[in-house]
Write a structure and sequence with these properties.
The chain is α+β, with helices and mostly antiparallel strands. It has 26 helices and 24 strands. The protein has a seven-stranded mixed β-sheet, with helices on both faces.
Length: about 750
C-alpha cells in the first residue's frame, strides 16, 4: 500500500464479505479482521488479492520478525531514490538557471530525465496500472499521470513540434519523481523509527536458556523451553521465561515491567518474569509460562493490537481519502479545460493541471493518525502503559473523575507490622518472638504480617552474640502449622517447633503454648470478654491512636497478663500522594473507593490527599458507585487491581488496571499499568491526551494543506516541481510531528485539556 486510499480500498473489500469487520492500518501495513467460522483466512487473503494487493497471516511477534524483508525494501527504495536524485538535479538546474543552458541542453536533459521518469517512477506506474485494472485510482495514479504527462508532452515538444516551439517539462518529470521517492524513503525511515519501542520490547526476551536436567546444565534456544522445565539464571543473565524460583535468592531488575530502577528481591517461591535481568546471585527457576504465554509476549501482543487499530478521529480521514483521488482527477481535468477555455496557452493549462495532480497526493492524511498511534502506544509500552486500542484515546480526553480503589492501588495491598510497644519490663525481642510463634499456626493476613515483621525486626536488632534461646520442649507443632519458619537457625528467631495446643479463634485471635508460656494474641475485646485481661494505660492509648488512623491493634498476652501491643496496617504506597497531585494537575477529581470501613478509608484518603471517599461497598456497590457518578454527568475513569474491581472497571468510561493485580481486572480494563506505581495513572492519561492532540494537529495540517494547495495549483501559482517538494514535506511533517511523542516525559507537568 502506498497511501490512505489504498488502505481504504482494501478495507472496503474485506468489509463487503458477509460477517466480516475489518480495519486496515496504512502506517503498520496490517489488517485486523473479525470474521465468522464460515470463512477462512484463505478467503480473506483472496479478497485482498482481488483488490490488487497481497496479504499473509502474520507470525507471532518475535524480535527481528520481517526486519530483513523490510530492510531489503528500504535498500531498493534508497537505490532508486539516489539514482533519481543524481540524475534529476542537473535536469532541474538546466531548466531553472538560464546561465547554465548550452546548445542542445534540452537533449541532455532528455537523456538524464528518461531513466528517472521510467525506471525511477516505475513503482508509481506499476501501481497505477494495477489500480486501473481493478477500476480504482490511488495516489500513485496521480503521480504516474503527472509524471507521464510531463514526460510525454516534452517528447511531443522536442520531436513533433520542434525544439523551442513549446516549453518542455522534463524537469517536472524528473524532479517530481526524485522528490516523491526522497519523501517515501524518509517516510519509510520515520515509520521504522516509530516502531522502535515495540522492537525494543521484543528484544528484551532472552535468546538462550540453561536447562537443568538430572543435575546437568544444557543450553537450548528459549523456544524449546517447556512448562515445568527447570533452568538456571546466573548473575547478569536475562530470565528465559516466566516462572517460580525454587533455589537461590537474588535481586532482579524488573524495570522493563515497572519502570522503577530499584531491583526486587526474589527467593524460593517468588514469581519472576521472563526478560527481567538477574543482578545478584544464581537462581534456579521452574518455568510456568513459556513462548507466547509469557508476560513479555502478552505485552507485545497488546501493543501490536493497539497499533493495528484506528481511533474514531481517523474515520473522517478515511472517508475523505476514499473519494479524494477521483475528485482530484476531476479537478485536474477541469483545470486544464478551464485554462484552455479562457484562451490561455496550452503550456500554461498543462502546467496548472499537472501541479494539481502532484500537490493533491493524500499521503499526509493517511499518515496523520496511524503514525501518532504507533509512536504513542510504543512510548507507552516503554513506560509500562499498555493501551488496548486507539479508541481509548478519545475516552481519556473526556474523563473528569478518577475513582481509585484503595487496596492494591493506593495501598500496598498487603498487611505489614507497623509498630511494636512492649509493656514495662518486657523485652521487645521476647514479645516479637512469642507473638510470631503463636501466629505461625494461622494463615490469616494479620498473622502473616506479624510473623514476617517479627522475623525482620529480630534479625535487624540481633547483636553479634545472638539472643539466648529458651530450650524448646519436645513437642511437635500442630498439623496445621505452616513450615515457613521451621528452618530458622539463629537462636533469637521464632522456632515454630516450639508450638503446641494451637487454636484459632476466627476473627478474634489465636491461643497456643510455646516456650512454657500460655499465649494469647488477638483483639482487645476478645481478651477482655473471654480471658478477663485488660491492657495498661499506655498500651490502651497506643491502640486507640492506631485504630483512629485506620490501623489494626493486636494485643499479646502470656501467663495471664497483656505484655504488649502490635499494630498492623495495609500501608499507603510511597508514591500515592504524588499520584493524586498529578491527577489534580490534569484537571481530574480523585475519589477513593473501598470495601474497607469508613474510618480506615478516611485515614488512607488523608494520607493520599483525597477528599471524597466511598467506603464499605462490596463489588456490586463499586459498580453502583461508578454508575451514580455517571448519572451525575461525570465521565469516570476507574483504577483497580482485584477481581472485585472487574465489574466497575468494565462499567467505567475508562478502565485502568494495575498490572500487579488479577487477570480478571486486567481483562476488564482498557489500559493496563504494568507496574504497581499509582503515578502511572496520570502518566497514562497524559500520554493518551498528548497522542490525541498530535493526531488532531496532524489531521489539521493534512486537511489544511490540501485545502489551500489545490486552489493555488489550479490558479497556476505553483510550479509542479515546487508542488512535489511541498507534497513530500507535508508527509514528512506529519511523521516527524508524531515522532515527538517519543520524547514524552512523565515527569513533566502536563497541560490541561
Amino acid at each position: 500500500m502506498t497511501c490512505a486510499s489504498c488502505a481504504a480500498r482494501v478495507e472496503r473489500k474485506l468489509n463487503r464479505l458477509d460477517g466480516v469487520s475489518a480495519t486496515v492500518n496504512f502506517a503498520t501495513e496490517a489488517a485486523r479482521v473479525s470474521f465468522p467460522e464460515t470463512l477462512t483466512v484463505g478467503d480473506l487473503i483472496a479478497a485482498v488479492e482481488r483488490t490488487g494487493y497481497t496479504a499473509a497471516l502474520p507470525a507471532p511477534p518475535e524480535a527481528g520478525q520481517d526486519e530483513d524483508a523490510a530492510a531489503g525494501s528500504r535498500r531498493e527504495l534508497r537505490l532508486r531514490m539516489l539514482v533519481s536524485v543524481a540524475l534529476a538535479v542537473p535536469v532541474v538546474l538546466l531548466a531553472m538557471v538560464p546561465a547554465l543552458q548550452f546548445p542542445g541542453w534540452r537533449w541532455a536533459s532528455l537523456a538524464a530525465a528518461t531513466p528517472v521518469a521510467t525506471w525511477g517512477a516505475w513503482p508509481f506506474h506499476r501501481a497505477a496500472v494495477v489500480s486501473a485494472l481493478h477500476g480504482t485510482a490511488t495516489m500513485d495514479t496521480l503521480v504516474s499521470i503527472g509524471v507521464s504527462a510531463a514526460y510525454l508532452w516534452s517528447l511531443y515538444a522536442l520531436f513533433l513540434a520542434g525544439p523551442g516551439t513549446h516549453a518542455t517539462y522534463l524537469e517536472v518529470a524528473a524532479g517530481v519523481t526524485a522528490l516523491i521517492l526522497l519523501g517515501r524513503y524518509l517516510e519509510a525511515r520515520a515509520k521504522r523509527s516509530a516502531g522502535t519501542a515495540l522492537r525494543a520490547l521484543l528484544d528484551l526476551g532472552a535468546k538462550q536458556a540453561t536447562v537443568l536436567t538430572d543435575g546437568r546444565e544444557f543450553s537450548v534456544p528459549v523456544g524449546q523451553l517447556q512448562v515445568g522445565d527447570e533452568f538456571v539464571v546466573r548473575p547478569g543473565e536475562k530470565i528465559a521465561a516466566d516462572g517460580t524460583v525454587i533455589v537461590g535468592s537474588s535481586a532482579v531488575d524488573t524495570s522493563m515491567l515497572t519502570g522503577e530502577p530499584v531491583p526486587a528481591e526474589a527467593g524460593p517461591g517468588d514469581a519472576v518474569t521472563g526478560g527481567c535481568v538477574n543482578v545478584g546471585g544464581r537462581l534456579v527457576v521452574r518455568a510456568t509460562r513459556v513462548g507466547a504465554d509469557t508476560e513479555l509476549a502478552r505485552l507485545a501482543r497488546l501493543v501490536t493490537q493497539a497499533q493495528a487499530g484506528k481511533a474514531p478521529v481517523q474515520r473522517l480521514a478515511d472517508r475523505v481519502s476514499a473519494v479524494f483521488v477521483p475528485v482530484v482527477l476531476v479537478i485536474a481535468a477541469a483545470t486544464l479545460a478551464g485554462w484552455l477555455a479562457s484562451g490561455a496557452s496550452a503550456d500554461a493549462a498543462f502546467t496548472a493541471a499537472v501541479a494539481v495532480l502532484i500537490i493533491a497526493c493524500p499521503c499526509a492524511m493517511g499518515l496523520a493518525t496511524p503514525t501518532a498511534i504507533l509512536v504513542g502506544t510504543g512510548r507507552g509500552a516503554q513506560l509500562g502503559i499498555l493501551i488496548k486500542g486507539p479508541e481509548i484515546l478519545e475516552s481519556t480526553r473526556r474523563v473528569d473523575t478518577v475513582v481509585l480503589d484503595k487496596t492494591g492501588t493506593i495501598t500496598a495491598g498487603r498487611m505489614t507490622l507497623t509498630d511494636v510497644l512492649a509493656a514495662p519490663g518486657v523485652p521487645e525481642a521476647d514479645l516479637l518472638r512469642l507473638a510470631a510463634i503463636a501466629e505461625s499456626g494461622s494463615e490469616h493476613p494479620i498473622a502473616a504480617a506479624i510473623t514476617t515483621g517479627a522475623r525482620t525486626r529480630l534479625a535487624a536488632s540481633a547483636p553479634a552474640a545472638a539472643l539466648p534461646a529458651v530450650a524448646p520442649p519436645a513437642v511437635a507443632p500442630p498439623a496445621a502449622a505452616p513450615a515457613a519458619l521451621d528452618a530458622i537457625a539463629p537462636p533469637w528467631a521464632p522456632d515454630v517447633r516450639d508450638l503446641s495446643e494451637f487454636t484459632a479463634h476466627p476473627g478474634l485471635g489465636v491461643s497456643a503454648v510455646a516456650e512454657g508460656h500460655a499465649l494469647l494474641v488477638g483483639q482487645r475485646g476478645w481478651l477482655a470478654a473471654e480471658w478477663s485481661l485488660a491492657p495498661g494505660p499506655e498500651l490502651a492509648e497506643r491502640a486507640d491512636r492506631a485504630e483512629e488512623s485506620g490501623q489494626t491493634a493486636v494485643f499479646v498476652a502470656w501467663d495471664g497478663r497483656i505484655r504488649g501491643v502490635l499494630t498492623v496496617a495495609d500501608t499507603i504506597k510511597p508514591t500515592a500522594r504524588a499520584a493524586v497531585t498529578r491527577l489534580r494537575a490534569l484537571g481530574l477529581h480523585p475519589v477513593l473507593l473501598t470495601g474497607d470501613n469508613e474510618r480506615a478509608a478516611r485515614a488512607v484518603a488523608r494520607q493520599a490527599g483525597i477528599d471524597d471517599v466511598i467506603a464499605g461497598v462490596d463489588p456490586g456497590g463499586k459498580l453502583a458507585a461508578v454508575r451514580r457518578l455517571q448519572e451525575q454527568h461525570r465521565t469516570v475513569a476507574m483504577v483497580g487491581d482485584g477481581v472485585n474491581d472487574a465489574a466497575a472497571l468494565a462499567q467505567a468510561d475508562l478502565g485502568l488496571a494495575m498490572g500487579t493485580g488479577t487477570d480478571a481486572a486486567i481483562e476488564a480494563a482498557d489500559v493496563t499499568l504494568v507496574g504497581g506505581d499509582p503515578r502511572a495513572v496520570g502518566d497514562a492519561i497524559a500520554l493518551s491526551r498528548k497522542t490525541l492532540r498530535t493526531i488532531k494537529a496532524n489531521l489539521g495540517w493534512a486537511f489544511g494543506y490540501n485545502a489551500a494547495a489545490i486552489p493555488l495549483a489550479a490558479s497556476g501559482l505553483l510550479n509542479p516541481t515546487i508542488a512535489a517538494a511541498a507534497m513530500a514535506f507535508s508527509s514528512l511533517f506529519v511523521v516527524t510531528n508524531s515522532l515527538r511523542l517519543r520524547r514524552f516525559n512523565p515527569g513533566r507537568t502536563p497541560d490541561r485539556q
